[in-house]
């Protein structure tokens, strides 16, 4: 059953539903009995944190990282860098990263978990040292594409031992890696280009990379890599289409404060849009390289009101959700949340340009089709996206496939549809371990907001009752 977001009568009050402080295992998604009203502070950006860590490891001195994301993907990055010889000192105020004299000086093993940024950013660092570095990860990570990056590292002079062009593999590099001219097909992930660009300045001849595939996803993530390198003094000529020429030279150490993760803010903001409520995320950057910023225009297209003032982003649901036609090539990581919003919109939605997300944490197109249809939706995969036809939804199991963003999508639908249970909320620890707490807190804050509003209305009525028709008080 899809609940009318404006109908506050038929569902139990969330506080009357069992609320467990779980962080793994099955999770009954809490329903929103009222339009949500809350402020949610979102933790640091995964993409910015992991780039900052890698750049600090490659820099010419120690760097401080403040507000870095503490989640599985960034823990794996920190541990992976330590395996390559980097010293990372973590305190409550931030992290101090001290690069070694020689990266990957000795043989080591790096666990990539399911983190694309770890499996695509650290092998290039391993190519800068003589140690044999063994990369492995979760079973599901062995399905993620790696071939173009491994071929590029081989072309650049590293030794790569691999069975099936995926994890696991071993990279043995050299301290004097020459670099030079390479061609890479990055149509299956922008992360190959980012990983290579990150080490370009440290190669003897720099790096001249040309992307040769038909499509290039996540261009803002490549721009983020280029911008963060330039902030550290690296010279990059990107004036030719699909070509980046990185001059050899030092990468300057730099302290950084990490922005909130705008893609992880998306489910909370979408919650306001679909329940007809209002959610604010503070510390929204005025200008950013994070593609997740696109959530502002996406929710506006769906029909929500979106306002950025004084560094806070507020989304207000208007009670209307249109079907939309979206090309998400640049911001494919928003697809699961967008598909969930589309499933409760008024008209059909087309999502295009995201064929490569079949190689994300799971095949997201297949997963979204299966899980949305399992709740009664009519969703179909296309060659490069999804068509979502809204239907009246019913409760049921929502499989997450170890994918944090599938969990966000299931939680969103659970706000409006009774009895949706996610099979494992633990997967949200990949980029936001506090997701279940923040989500239930958002609902609890909304209940308090609505209690305060009712109390204010009652007080107002009492005041009015106490005033006689001639305006004098009883
Ligand atoms: O470089 C990055 O930080 C990322 C790039 C993108 O990867 P793809 O280009 O593989 O989609 C994005 O989806 C991922 O979440 C993070
Ligand atoms: C695709 C994603 O992650 P990864 O960095 O593992 O590729 C994602 O977070 O949506």
TrEMBL record:
<feature type="binding site">
    <location>
        <position position="46"/>
    </location>
    <ligand>
        <name>phosphoenolpyruvate</name>
    </ligand>
</feature>
<dbReference type="InterPro" id="IPR001986">
    <property type="entry name" value="Enolpyruvate_Tfrase_dom"/>
</dbReference>
<feature type="binding site">
    <location>
        <position position="116"/>
    </location>
    <ligand>
        <name>phosphoenolpyruvate</name>
    </ligand>
</feature>
<comment type="pathway">
    <text>Metabolic intermediate biosynthesis; chorismate biosynthesis; chorismate from D-erythrose 4-phosphate and phosphoenolpyruvate: step 6/7.</text>
</comment>
<feature type="compositionally biased region" description="Basic and acidic residues">
    <location>
        <begin position="450"/>
        <end position="464"/>
    </location>
</feature>
<feature type="binding site">
    <location>
        <position position="47"/>
    </location>
    <ligand>
        <name>3-phosphoshikimate</name>
    </ligand>
</feature>
<keyword id="KW-0028">Amino-acid biosynthesis</keyword>
<feature type="binding site">
    <location>
        <position position="333"/>
    </location>
    <ligand>
        <name>3-phosphoshikimate</name>
    </ligand>
</feature>
<keyword id="KW-0963">Cytoplasm</keyword>
<comment type="similarity">
    <text>Belongs to the EPSP synthase family.</text>
</comment>
<feature type="region of interest" description="Disordered">
    <location>
        <begin position="450"/>
        <end position="474"/>
    </location>
</feature>
<feature type="binding site">
    <location>
        <position position="144"/>
    </location>
    <ligand>
        <name>phosphoenolpyruvate</name>
    </ligand>
</feature>
<feature type="binding site">
    <location>
        <position position="46"/>
    </location>
    <ligand>
        <name>3-phosphoshikimate</name>
    </ligand>
</feature>
<feature type="binding site">
    <location>
        <position position="51"/>
    </location>
    <ligand>
        <name>3-phosphoshikimate</name>
    </ligand>
</feature>
<dbReference type="InterPro" id="IPR006264">
    <property type="entry name" value="EPSP_synthase"/>
</dbReference>
<dbReference type="Pfam" id="PF00275">
    <property type="entry name" value="EPSP_synthase"/>
</dbReference>
<keyword id="KW-0057">Aromatic amino acid biosynthesis</keyword>
<protein>
    <recommendedName>
        <fullName>3-phosphoshikimate 1-carboxyvinyltransferase</fullName>
        <ecNumber>2.5.1.19</ecNumber>
    </recommendedName>
</protein>
<feature type="binding site">
    <location>
        <position position="405"/>
    </location>
    <ligand>
        <name>phosphoenolpyruvate</name>
    </ligand>
</feature>
<feature type="binding site">
    <location>
        <position position="191"/>
    </location>
    <ligand>
        <name>3-phosphoshikimate</name>
    </ligand>
</feature>
<keyword id="KW-0808">Transferase</keyword>
<feature type="binding site">
    <location>
        <position position="364"/>
    </location>
    <ligand>
        <name>phosphoenolpyruvate</name>
    </ligand>
</feature>
<dbReference type="GO" id="GO:0003866">
    <property type="term" value="F:3-phosphoshikimate 1-carboxyvinyltransferase activity"/>
</dbReference>
<feature type="binding site">
    <location>
        <position position="189"/>
    </location>
    <ligand>
        <name>3-phosphoshikimate</name>
    </ligand>
</feature>
<feature type="active site" description="Proton acceptor">
    <location>
        <position position="333"/>
    </location>
</feature>
<comment type="subunit">
    <text>Monomer.</text>
</comment>
<feature type="region of interest" description="Disordered">
    <location>
        <begin position="1"/>
        <end position="29"/>
    </location>
</feature>
<comment type="function">
    <text>Catalyzes the transfer of the enolpyruvyl moiety of phosphoenolpyruvate (PEP) to the 5-hydroxyl of shikimate-3-phosphate (S3P) to produce enolpyruvyl shikimate-3-phosphate and inorganic phosphate.</text>
</comment>
<feature type="binding site">
    <location>
        <position position="430"/>
    </location>
    <ligand>
        <name>phosphoenolpyruvate</name>
    </ligand>
</feature>
<dbReference type="InterPro" id="IPR023193">
    <property type="entry name" value="EPSP_synthase_CS"/>
</dbReference>
<feature type="domain" description="Enolpyruvate transferase">
    <location>
        <begin position="33"/>
        <end position="436"/>
    </location>
</feature>
<feature type="binding site">
    <location>
        <position position="190"/>
    </location>
    <ligand>
        <name>3-phosphoshikimate</name>
    </ligand>
</feature>
<dbReference type="InterPro" id="IPR013792">
    <property type="entry name" value="RNA3'P_cycl/enolpyr_Trfase_a/b"/>
</dbReference>
<feature type="compositionally biased region" description="Polar residues">
    <location>
        <begin position="465"/>
        <end position="474"/>
    </location>
</feature>
<dbReference type="InterPro" id="IPR036968">
    <property type="entry name" value="Enolpyruvate_Tfrase_sf"/>
</dbReference>
<feature type="binding site">
    <location>
        <position position="360"/>
    </location>
    <ligand>
        <name>3-phosphoshikimate</name>
    </ligand>
</feature>
<feature type="binding site">
    <location>
        <position position="191"/>
    </location>
    <ligand>
        <name>phosphoenolpyruvate</name>
    </ligand>
</feature>
<feature type="binding site">
    <location>
        <position position="218"/>
    </location>
    <ligand>
        <name>3-phosphoshikimate</name>
    </ligand>
</feature>
